[in-house]
Design a protein that fits this description.
Protein name: UDENN domain-containing protein
CATH superfamily of one domain: DENN domain, C-terminal lobe
Largest sheet: 7 strands, antiparallel
Strand order of the largest sheet: 26-25-24-21-29-28-27
Helix content: 40-55%
Strand content: 15-25%
GO molecular function: guanyl-nucleotide exchange factor activity
InterPro entries: cDENN_dom, dDENN_dom, DENN_C, DENN_Domain_GEFs, GRAM, SBF1/SBF2, Tripartite_DENN, uDENN_dom
Number of helices: 36
GO biological process, one term: regulation of Rab protein signal transduction
Number of strands: 29
Organism: Loa loa
Length: 1054
């Protein structure tokens, strides 16, 4: 790591000549064949691509009836390790041989009518496309002159020119011309010449390029279309260059051959280019299509590309407008202002790239503050704390940034640039210079354009050559046409090229003094909060600390007074993290971890509030109270938490002096450093010191430190297995009884034995796969599903952390035993939790009756009146305190339904809530589902009580009243059903009206007058009459219709 980079790289790796295979034409196939390659054997550092014949002629190997002009384009080849090689291809056509002429019946007597393609390819790791175009032209001219100049040119390119970043230019002779070339000063910065400028001219608008940028940042597929091979290659290369400092990690094929067109349906992201001749076969693709010939970008309806958040979108757009349209700002001036001359294409190219480079630097300000170290040795491993970055930069609600941080593009960036001691480049310097105050604020036009010009000058200096590449004498098309129409290109002398290469390798040094040395990456400015925000956070943390002190000191009345303010503060990330830190701090002495029921209730209430509780659950231990939160099913949460804890342990390992406190989560800097990532010395500082001094450390010391790091990762993995078992196995007796605990224990023992006996390995593995559920497990089996979920997560996390495979298998083998032991403990916990004394409940209040007529029919049942959506609150300071939910009793009288109780809010518990509804006005009563009853309507009800509520109902009346209530656990289900049945029978009564409330005073007179009715009339109620009319309306109308009157007789006229 500490060694400087001084190895030189060949300018050209291979020179290959490929031509049409005439031997395959009679078999009906048109393919290319490598006829010559130099050198004959692969180099030790890079091998020849096996599919060069296909990518050098993307349009296919086909004969032509006419002479075609010489064409040049550059394709990009990527090997299995991700290393890229540029294939610069010169396509020529020459007359066919006699075998093909005999096959063709249309041949005339005057001369050959068919021409076959031949391609001369230069393979290099440097993107000097203009230089290689000139070299290929010189080689082609030498082949036409039938001399040995071509052999000498090829041997010079392959063995005499070696380039080193940062070193002066290297001069060499190519035929009669003398050329010079210099490697880029920084190998990580792309060399673009004027390709980005031409690319933006093809796209036409700033909107198109920003749409394309967002699509690449979020891992969408990009497909280029054009009728030009060079335009496809240059556009794809320009787009990849605009992504600097990111290197595109997915499939990248600037010119896709027609034979591989089915690869466009790949499910993985890619950047590919195809010719317009195959556009018909490229329909119905879920990819962003860029038509370079017309400058259009087509986004299919199935794709939704997120936009760049403000103010970054406006800043990038303004920067591009200043570069592309400098006269736009003064277009409306009455007095015309002179504009400076338009810069050259190369300078314009660097200014455009400077706009995008500054955009990425602004976007990633402070990213190095969120890096965490997992391993320092064998090999170093750095991870990114995504949640900390989103919270500190306030990007949590931005879909583009969240998708970008999850993309492979950003993960590759962290793996390459995460190390704090490495070779730095322009991006590292730019990020370190940007201050946090400039992020998110508008800057002056002069300041912005000056910054862009300064960055563009550094980009231009990186790739500037002493002499331009385009010095080849102009060659007319007529010269090539005349030469090719009658003769074929000769073959090169293999022996002469090989001997020349060997001779020049002996006389040419291929290594020079090192120039680029690794150094400590300059730390980015820490993302600090505003002064007002810091003050507000400090006050919240003080209130939270006071509340927890009151709870642990058993001053519950003081704790309840500030409980509402503490619950509101739990919306802040700082408060949630500080809450965990304070809980850790209050575990000393250890006897404070055992709480009384009242203390326990308040602590669990804060835990659920911090986790944004979705459903409720409470039992003896704290982890069983928060099991039903969705966060425990989020694998990204477990992975981020695991890496954060490992980072803390690795930092403590390499600290010069151990901290006084054993608490791994200090609270002193929580206001400005929520995740404790910027403690001095930081983890990145310690890693940088270790990497810088690695060359001076003995091998046995390195092995010792690597073993200590490995033990930390292994110990944390075992600890997290226990945590995941606690959170994944619910305290549900009905589910626990279905788990085969003995089978889990046997599996754990079997996994332990198979590490000692090789003969039992295969059998144990096959049985374990089936029994553990990896193959045919029942999804309803709690034990197997838990083991499978934890095993997969542990295997992925530990593999990323660099644990060896035997250790990972050992951890996964112990998981069934952990689950079985925990289930045994939970059964005992469930039994003991039922013996807990019930919580104190308020006394039930009796309603005031309308004497002497109103009387209670049923009631006195404890219920909770839930919120119905209306604003029923009072103001307590600046925080509204709701009267609902309220705890009390529900009563049914012969006149109304009455609820009377007290609010659950401790600040309003002295008030009385009365809600009533007349029985005869009720229009509908229905039960409420579990999903509705477990929603936000339960907020404010004690957690232990809310978990036991049952039989929730909703009653509506014709007077626009609504009442929602749920019965307490002390009310049996039979009592709740009986109450609702009594209400229904009273509302739709089939008895005499003197039993109702309105006739209570005259009940004696009505009963003596009307007497008792033993039979029920057919239409005893309006409801039954309505049903009868709906069944047979015509029959009922005829029954009640009056007979028609007879008409008077008409007198006769005599």
């Amino acid at each position: 790591m500490s060694e400087c980079e001084g190895t030189s790289t060949r300018l050209v790796d291979y020179v290959v000549i490929i031509e049409f295979d005439e031997t395959q034409i009679r078999h009906g196939s048109s393919v290319g064949n490598i006829v010559q390659r130099f050198p004959k054997y692969d180099w030790s550092d890079i091998s020849l691509s096996p599919s060069l014949e296909v990518f050098s002629q993307p349009q296919g190997w086909a004969l032509s009836a006419e002479m075609r002009p010489v064409c040049f384009f550059a394709n990009t080849l990527t090997d299995i390790m991700g290393a890229r090689q540029y294939a610069c291809c010169l396509q020529v056509y020459e007359p066919c041989g006699d075998d093909i002429e005999e096959v063709d019946d249309t041949r005339s007597d005057e001369g050959p009518s068919l021409f076959k393609p031949k391609v001369i390819v230069i393979l290099s790791r440097f993107p000097f496309f203009d230089l290689f175009r000139n070299c290929l032209n010189q080689i082609l001219l030498a082949l036409l002159e039938a001399e040995d100049k071509a052999e000498l040119m090829i041997s010079t390119l392959l063995s005499q020119v070696y380039l080193t970043p940062g070193m002066p230019a290297v001069s060499f002779c190519l035929g009669s011309d003398r050329l010079s070339v210099r490697a880029p000063k920084s190998p990580t910065i792309p060399v673009t010449s004027d390709k980005v400028t031409l690319f933006l001219q093809q796209l036409g608008t700033i909107h198109n390029i920003l749409t394309l940028l967002c699509a690449v940042m979020t891992d969408y597929k990009i497909l280029f279309r054009s009728s030009s091979l060079s335009l496809l290659a240059d556009s794809c290369y320009a787009l990849r260059s605009l992504l600097y400092p990111f290197d595109y990690p997915h499939t990248y094929v600037p010119v896709l051959p027609e034979l591989l067109i089915e690869y466009l349906e790949s499910p993985t992201p890619y950047i590919m280019g195809v010719l317009n001749t195959v556009r018909i076969r490229c329909t119905d693709l879920d990819a962003v299509v860029v038509d370079l010939d017309v400058g259009a970008v087509y986004v299919p309806p199935s794709i939704t590309i997120p936009v760049i958040p403000q103010p970054f979108h406006q800043q990038l757009t303004s920067s591009l407008q200043m570069v592309l349209y400098p006269g736009l700002a003064t277009a409306d001036f009455a007095w015309k202002v002179g504009q400076p001359p338009f810069p050259a294409c190369e300078v314009q190219d660097k200014r455009i790239r400077a706009c995008f480079l500054r955009f990425f630097a602004d976007l990633l300000v402070g990213y190095r503050c969120c890096l965490e170290v997992i391993r320092v040795y064998t090999p170093p491993l750095i991870v990114f704390h995504k949640s900390a970055f989103l919270g500190l930069r306030q990007f949590s609600s931005c879909p583009l940034i969240r998708a970008f941080l999850d993309s492979l593009l950003f993960q590759s960036f962290i793996s390459e640039r995460g190390l704090p001691f490495r070779i730095c480049d322009l991006f590292d310097e730019l990020v370190a210079q940007i201050s946090e105050q400039s992020n998110g604020q508008s800057t002056l036009r002069t300041t912005s354009i000056e910054n862009i010009i300064e960055i563009a000058e550094k980009l231009l200096e990186n790739e500037r050559q002493e002499t331009p590449f385009s010095i080849t004498p102009f060659v007319t098309r007529q010269r090539f046409t005349i030469s090719f129409s009658s003769t074929k290109l000769r073959l090169l002398n293999n022996d002469l090229v090989s001997q020349s290469i060997k001779h020049k390798l002996k006389t040419t040094p291929n290594s020079v003094a090192p120039v680029l040395c690794p150094r400590r990456v300059q730390a980015t400015p820490w993302i600090t909060a505003k002064e007002e925000r810091m003050g507000a956070v400090s006050r919240r943390l003080q209130v939270l600390s006071s509340c927890l002190h009151h709870i642990f000191d058993f001053k519950l009345s003081d704790a309840r007074k500030i409980m509402c303010a503490v619950e509101l503060s739990m919306r802040s990330v700082n408060a949630r993290v500080a809450f965990c830190q304070l809980l850790w701090k209050n575990l000393v002495p250890i006897n404070r971890a055992t709480l009384f029921p009242q203390q326990f209730e308040l602590i669990v209430r804060l835990m659920n509030c911090a986790l944004n509780r979705l459903t409720a659950g409470v039992h003896q231990f704290a982890y069983t109270c928060i099991q039903e939160h969705a966060v425990w099913d989020n694998q990204q949460f477990w992975e981020a938490a695991f890496f954060h804890d490992v980072h803390r342990q690795i930092r403590r390992l390499y600290l010069p002096a151990r901290e006084e406190s054993d608490c791994p989560f200090p609270l002193k800097e929580n206001v400005t450093d929520t995740w404790n990532l910027m403690e001095k010395p930081s983890g990145m500082d310690l890693v940088s010191d270790q990497l810088a001094s690695m060359s001076n450390v003995r091998d046995d010391e390195i092995e010792k430190r690597a073993a200590e790091e490995n033990s930390i990762v292994y110990g944390q993995a075992k600890h997290y297995i226990n945590l995941m078992v606690y959170m994944r196995v619910p305290l549900d007796l009905s589910k626990l009884r279905r788990v085969n605990v003995r089978e889990l224990e046997k599996r754990s023992d079997r996994n332990g034995r198979k590490r000692d006996f090789d003969e039992e390995t295969e059998l144990s593995m096959s049985e374990s796969e089936v029994e553990s559920g990896f193959v045919e497990a029942d999804s309803t089996d709690l034990g197997n599903s838990t083991v499978r979920w934890i095993s997969r997560l542990i295997d992925r996390i530990c593999s990323s952390a660099g644990l060896e495979q035997p250790q990972i298998e050992s951890l996964c083998g112990e998981i069934p035993g952990f689950v079985a032991l925990h289930i045994d403990n939970l059964e005992q916990v469930y039994t003991e939790s039922k013996r807990l004394s019930p919580l104190h409940k308020p006394k039930l209040l009796q309603p005031a009756l309308l004497l002497p007529s109103e009387r209670i029919v049923a009631g006195g049942l404890r219920v909770f009146l839930l919120a119905d959506g209306r604003v029923t609150s009072t103001t307590c300071g600046e925080t509204p305190q709701s009267l609902l939910p309220a705890e009390g009793a529900i009563f049914l009288t012969n006149y109304r339904v009455v609820f009377k109780g007290q609010p659950c809010d401790l600040f309003l518990c002295e008030q009385v809530v009365v809600r009533s509804m007349t029985v005869m006005s009720i229009t509908k009563e229905k039960p409420i589902g579990d999903a509705s009853s477990q929603s936000s309507q339960l907020e404010g009800i004690p957690v232990r009580v809310a978990h036991q509520l049952h039989d929730a109902f909703q009653i509506r009346s014709s007077g626009f009243q609504l009442m929602k209530f749920a019965f307490d656990e002390e009310v049996p289900n039979e009592k709740a059903e009986e109450f609702m049945e009594t209400l229904s029978s009273l509302r739709w009564a089939s008895v005499l009206p003197h039993t109702l409330f309105a006739y209570s005073a005259a009940s004696s007179i009505l009963s003596s007058t009307l007497g008792s009715i033993t039979s029920k009339h057919k239409y005893g109620t309006m409801k039954e009459l309505k049903k009868a009319l709906m069944r047979n309306p015509l029959k009922e109308r005829k029954r009640f219709r009056a007979p028609p009157k007879a008409l008077p007789p008409i007198p006769k006229k005599w």
